[in-house]
Design a protein that fits this description.
two-stranded parallel ribbon, hydrolase activity, CPBP family intramembrane glutamic endopeptidase, mainly alpha, transmembrane helix, 11 helices
Length: 265
Amino acid sequence: MSVIEQPVSNRRVAAEVWIVLGLSLGQSAVYALVNIAARLTADTPLAEQTATLNASQSERPYLDLVYQLLSIGFALVPVALALYLLSGPGRSAVRSLGLDRSRPARDLGWGVALAAAIGIPGLAFYVLGRALGITVEVQASALDTHWWTVPVLLLSAFQNGLLEEVIAVGYLYERTRELGWNRVKFIVASSLLRGSYHLYQGIGPFIGNVVMGVVFSWFYTSPRFQPDGRRRVIPLVVAHTLLDVVAFVGYALVPAEWREALGIR
């Protein structure tokens, strides 16, 4: 009986993965693929196009705030769904994915280290992409200046980190392991997924995020960094959040002439 039930179980797991991705990063990847196709076939060269990461959604400040908070909140629903699906009797997905607070100092330390290791090469990929004409000009934030602007950008950075690392790394690893995937196959799939939903920014960010995906998924699955066998996604969330905080908020501290030279507005 088990021989008959296994393929059915695998089909259900695969269907679940497609549903979760279809509600989250997979959906973003499809839109990004269409977007990059539109950009590459447009009359305007890719290097002269712009991508806005945090756009205003209303001219009325408090209505804009409500829209921003709703957008952040609903973007985290797939995270809740993934954690729910991975949980069960006697099994907490929060604990199994390493989202608990059992090692705050170590998680923070690794998160900062990963952010530093990815941040500088990531900026280099962006600058090189701009120079080669394969990366659009990125507008990190188009929000008007209000008392809530920085807190919203910080929340947006955290939302990105939690959504991408829980779905693209933690959840996807658990489910693909059930499907019999080995570590290398998972790392390749996770990294390509991460790169694909950044394609709207151009070819350079696609390559940079694939590299980031390789580093993050390798770190998450490496026994060297998980000595007790418990994988922890929190360092990845910390690292991703720090990278986005620098991109969304820290850019304003960079001199205007430097931002212009890097193609950042």
